[in-house]
């Protein structure tokens, strides 16, 4: 099966005076996990609903395989809405079979696919239960199965990890990785930035309806300062204070944490530390996605 990119190009949407999306553009490539992050009300859900055709954009375009998304294309999207949309009184298996057939699968294919996902997601002993009787975590698993059961060409998942226990998070992560490895473009929004950082090839950060940063996490954090933790048991207090391009953030006992100005060579810090005696630890940490997110979002607010 040929896989294609999902593109948002200059998508804007207003609700009365509220600008929900302001010229949002990004691309989710085949086989890529793309994390879509932003505070509540930043526009993530609105963007996803426009991809799905639940909402219409005021301007801009959503394309799949280079062509505008149509009703036919939308049947090939696996969608997991943030406000979960399952039939509460329907049994798990029946519901998944029904949804698969709705997306054009034959009865036989639908049953096979439903059974596959039910066992994959650890729901085998719940297949005959009504959805409303399941725990929230299990309802979440059924909702993911509903997004996957018709073997979609694109996955669009709104907060798929919210309310999941750690084991279900692992199951969900491995399913998304597997889908991406098979060439499917996968976009999901999440508040769990450590998870996004671990899973995603690229991220887009949206703030007040605008994309304020987009790229691989390593690229986005590249310009930021690097922190280094140095443990040197014999180093005197203030040993790093005079080094150029180096700011001492803390010194507790024999451990010092410094921040390097962009372009400063970390080897100068190591040499200075070794000059004091043995070095037990020398580790650098790049800023996390959470730090980047805070910086980008607060910079933008201050700039207004």
From TrEMBL:
Transmembrane segments: none
Keyword DNA-binding on entry: no
Domain called ABC transporter: residue spans: 6-233
Listed GO MF terms: ATP binding; ATP hydrolysis activity
Record keywords: Antibiotic resistance, ATP-binding, Nucleotide-binding, Transport
Gene3D superfamilies the record matches: P-loop containing nucleotide triphosphate hydrolases (3.40.50.300)
Any Gene Ontology biological process: response to antibiotic
Pfam family, one: DrrA1-3_C
Descriptive protein name: ABC-type uncharacterized transport system, ATPase component
Organism of this sequence: Saccharomonospora marina XMU15
Location in the cell: Cell membrane
Membrane topology: Peripheral membrane protein
A Gene Ontology term for the protein's cellular component: plasma membrane
Sequence similarity: Belongs to the ABC transporter superfamily.
Top-level taxonomy: Bacteria, Bacillati, Actinomycetota, Actinomycetes, Pseudonocardiales
């Amino acid at each position: 099966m040929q896989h294609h990119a999902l593109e948002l190009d200059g998508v804007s949407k207003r609700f009365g005076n509220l600008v929900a999306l302001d010229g949002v553009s990004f691309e989710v490539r085949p086989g890529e996990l793309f994390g879509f992050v932003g505070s509540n009300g930043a526009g993530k859900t609105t963007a996803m609903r426009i991809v799905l055709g639940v909402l219409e954009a005021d301007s801009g375009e959503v394309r799949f395989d280079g062509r505008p998304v149509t009703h036919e294309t939308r049947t090939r999207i696996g969608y997991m809405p943030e406000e979960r949309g399952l039939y509460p009184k329907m049994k798990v298996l029946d519901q998944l079979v029904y949804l698969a057939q709705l997306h054009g699968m034959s009865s036989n294919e639908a049953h096979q696919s439903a059974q596959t996902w039910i066992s994959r997601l650890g729901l085998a002993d719940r297949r005959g239960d009504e959805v409303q009787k399941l725990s929230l975590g299990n309802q979440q698993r059924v909702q993911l199965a509903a997004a996957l059961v018709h073997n979609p060409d694109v996955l669009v998942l709104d907060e798929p990890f919210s309310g999941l226990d750690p084991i279900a998070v692992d199951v969900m992560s491995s399913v998304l990785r597997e889908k991406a490895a098979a060439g499917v473009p996968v976009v999901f929004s999440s508040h769990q930035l450590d998870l996004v950082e671990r899973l995603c090839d690229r991220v887009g950060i949206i703030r007040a309806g605008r994309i304020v940063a987009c790229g691989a996490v390593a690229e986005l954090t590249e310009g930021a300062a690097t922190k280094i933790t140095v443990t040197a048991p014999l180093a005197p207090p203030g040993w790093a204070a005079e080094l150029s391009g180096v700011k001492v953030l803390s010194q507790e006992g024999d451990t010092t944490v410094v921040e390097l100005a962009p372009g400063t060579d970390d080897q100068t810090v190591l040499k200075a530390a070794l000059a004091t005696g043995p070095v037990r630890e020398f580790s650098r940490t790049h800023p996390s996605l959470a730090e980047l997110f805070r910086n980008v979002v607060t910079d933008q607010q201050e700039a207004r």
